[in-house]
Amino acid sequence: MSLRSLLRKELHWSKRHIFVLVFLLIALPLFFAGTSFLFQDVIPREVPVAVVAEDESVSSIDMGLVRAGMAPYTEPKPAADRAEALRMLERESVYAVVSVPPDLRSGETTFTLTVDGSIVPFQSSSEVIQNLIELELNRIEGADISIEREIVGEEKQLPEYLLPSFLMTLMIFFAFTYVPYNVGRDEVVLDRLRVESSLEALLASKLAYMTALMVVPILVFHVIATYYGYAIESFHPGAVFVLLLSFAFMATLSATVVILTRFSGAGQFVNLLVMLGLIALSGLAFPLGFFSPVRTQIAQLLPTHYAMVAVRSLMLKDSSIATFADWIAILFGLFVLSLFILEGAIIYYRRES
Amino acid sequence: MTGEPSTDSKEAIRVDGVTRTYGDVTAIDDLSVAIGGGQYHCLLGPNGSGKSTLMRLILGLTRPTSGSIDRPDAQIGCGFQHPNFYPGLSVRENIHIFARIVGADDWDWNQTVVTELRLSRALDREAGDLSGGFARRLDLALALIKKPDFLLLDEPLGALDDVSQTRLLDFLGRYAGDGNTVLVSTHEITEFEPYVDRITVLHRGELVFDRRVEEIPLDGDESLQSYYVDTVLAREGISVDED
To answer: Are A259 and A251 in contact (CB under 8 A)?
Structure first.
């Protein structure tokens, strides 16, 4: 009797919280099942590779032949010269550079496939791609092509490569779980805070404080990296700046969701979903060429992807922050925009109070 | 007739033709009232009469659907129907934090508040673990620490024991006597009767009357509470047999 009554109570609760259940039982499974199509290939087939002529004597016909030969296994990208191609490599816009020598069809010719030593997950794949391209290019009539693999920069180990990825994942996790929790916790005292101060001041103090707190996990990673003797700049000032800026941007977004959903549980779920989406789709750990074209396009729309590339490059390659100035400027612009959106949410909250 | 304070507008909170609706429900209907002049002012009304909504409107926590509210450039302190403080911090920490937020650096006054509200022995207890009475007292303390010119209290006697009620009423009486305005929202005026200067009665969001106590025509030994109850009942069309 008691069990039946309690089951009825559960049913009653479910009716009252139908949106929560719809989210958990339908929307979330739909998200995971629906995004499964984004993982299409085991072997990367769409790796962006810069194709550049070794000198001006390389004909456009030869360049076209090379691009066509590479197309089944890579996504050839044009580059004006080798310097630009290497810059693209540094920014992970491409994962390899192929230098095409002149006189492609006049006997023995050697190509150079340049890869970055710090992009550890691509090392084995690049060897496979090297063989496949070689096979494909030797179909060209009169060609006797061999490809040499050249590694630029210091070769890294997988743990070294993954450390920045874990750090960015942690930033996303904190921004979309701890920040909403912390903001939501103040709901019980919100009326007093609004009277004695303002929502703007409250949120500004929280965002500033929590962004500053994020230096602590970065330092912890630095200590661990030092302890294990990892050859990375784990406390690179530029990388720390990008990590904190990314966190501030994401924390502002998650706080906006909390305010727009009026501190309700729905906001926590929305933030959770955004967090899962960013972690799954930003291409945090593996080069974009490992993913399907759709997923690659999605990643290229997410600021977290560019922040990740910048942080990884600054930590692993000791790149100059100027290399990523445009991306960092856009990230900063998005952060400023998110502040305006947060202010809009606060105005809406007040209007609806 | 109104019991409006005879002060200039700069020293009063003026609610002018304010209406507040929530969907189809009108919580406050074209209400005009002024609060100030160092009065001990009771906002009286049954449940759902709009008292808390009016308090929230005055505090700026809710926006009027129409009409306006002018607040003077003065300190306004507030005690809430549901106590507002950080439950995860101690009483002492709550007082210190809010004192800093409001810039209340008169620590002698803060000590006076703690003593008057009998909070001393609870200072190091976690606020979330406080009984209803102590929670109410902490909320009142937070309302008082900045020594506000206007003290707005929503149902301040709720959960307080008799001794605490008496001490609080005396304290509020003295506080209003010092030239500060005290506005108390309640549905039961008996305890406030010896202290109160002015009464504003709301019913279903409308103003029933707003008078100084001496202007209320009480019959013989009729109390303010029974006068108020009779007025509200009459408003609802229920006649009350006289003895």
So the answer is: no
Spatial neighbors of B183 by CB under 8 A, at least 6 apart, are B35, B41, B42, B43, B55, B58, B150, B151, B152, B153
Which is nearest to A119 in space by CA: A223, A49, A173?
A49
Interface pTM, i.e. ipTM: 0.89
- Name the band, by pLDDT with cuts 50, 70 and 90, for residue B1: very low
Helices A158-173, A215-228: inter-axial angle, 10-degree rounding: 160
Confidence of residue B218 (pLDDT cuts 50, 70, 90): confident
Number of A–B residue contacts, CB under 8 Å: 41
Specify whether the CB–CB gap between B61 and A191 falls below 8 A: yes
Nearest to B62 among A188, A197, A353 (CB): A353
Would the CB atoms of A188 and B101 count as touching at under 8 Å? no
Residue A294 has pLDDT above 90, yes or no: no
Distance of CA B173 to the CA centre of its chain: 13
With beta carbons less than 8 A apart as the criterion, state whether A298 and A281 touch: yes
Single-letter code of the amino acid located at A151: I
Taking phi first (over 0 means left), then psi (-120 to 50 degrees means alpha), and beta for anything else, what does residue A313 get?
alpha
For residues A29 and B25, what is the distance between their CA atoms, to the nearest angstrom? 39
Contact B101 A197 (CB under 8 A): yes
Amino acid in position B164: S
List of residues 6+ apart from A227 with CB closer than 8 A: none
Where is average pLDDT lowest: A13-27, A196-210, A303-317, B72-86? A13-27
Place of tokens 């500033």: A208
Q: Which of A245, A250, A249, A254 is nearest to A314 (CA)?
A: A245
* Residue position matching structure tokens 């009729």: B222
CB atoms A195 and B59 under 8 Å: yes
HSE-up (13 A, CA, CB side) for residue B232 = 20
Q: What is the pLDDT of residue B58?
A: 95
User: Is residue B115 within 8 Å of residue B163, measured between CB atoms?
Assistant: no
The reply to whether residue A189 touches residue B80, judged by beta carbons under 8 angstroms, is no
Predicted confidence band of residue A132 (pLDDT cuts 50, 70, 90)? confident
Q: Do A189 and B62 touch (CB under 8 A)?
A: no
pLDDT for residue B8 is more than 50: no
Of B231, B140, B199, nearest to B4 (Cα)?
Answer: B199
Residue keyed to tokens 């540094």: A90
B98 contacts in chain A (CB < 8 Å): 192, 196
A contact test, residue of B86, B91, B139, B150 with most A CBs within 10 A: B86
Neighbouring residues of A84: CB distance < 8 A, sequence distance ≥ 6: A50, A52
Question: Which tokens hold the place of A90?
Answer: 């540094």
Query: What is the identity of the amino acid at A327?
Result: W
Query: CB–CB of A197 and B60 under 8 A?
Result: no
What is the DSSP code string of A139-199? TSTTEEEEEEEEEES----HHHHHHHHHHHHHHHHIIIIIHHHHHHHGGGGHHHHHHHS-H
